[in-house]
Amino acid sequence: EVQMLESGGGLAQPGGSLRLSCAASGFSFSNHAMSWVRQAPGKGLAWVSAVSVTGITTRTYYADSVKGRFTISRDNSKNTLFLQMNGLRAEDTAVYYCAKDRVVVPAALGYFQDWGQGTLVTVSP
Amino acid sequence: SYELTQPPSVSVSPGQTASISCSGDKLGAKYVCWYQQKPGQSPVLVIYQDTKRPSGIPERFSGSSSGNTATLTISGTQAMDEADYYCQTWDSSTSFYVFGTGTKVTVL
Known about the structure:
A: mainly beta; 11 strands
């Protein structure tokens, strides 16, 4: 059974930092691209960032709203996905989901087969 | 940036057909998938690559895509289908995944 468990959410001050983790099990983690998707309270889904499988070149992708502030990474030895969030803003307040992609590199054929349960990030003074 | 537009809400009577549209520039040339999200739960994939259903998804869920519009159809809608639905595609010009604005389906 595929399972993904996010952690690391909580309350942060504007300008502060948080590091989210997503522990995966039940599938070959190293063979799938992974993404973070967020959902602000009462709002829709928004893709945040993606990382390809580890290879000669591990590719990372970021939405414009987080580029330069967030960093996605993965540790295949621990089956864990990370999101380092710096320079947090009030508009980053959301539930953050990790999502397992169908493909090895995000692309047209990609889609999110499985999702974690999410972790809440609140940015407030 | 690429945008996907959905109607905010769709109402349907039990047993009837619900159609949810997703509009975007030349969307028919891209692959589209659909997710269902019930209150307090994580999204669940219900359609991928325009028309395919993952295992475990009821046959009453179907998808189509042409021109600038993709459509999710729920035939014989049941009370359990009441949820928010999101379309999603890949924008190759920016290398972004893009979600639609979301549609709340109410079964009256």
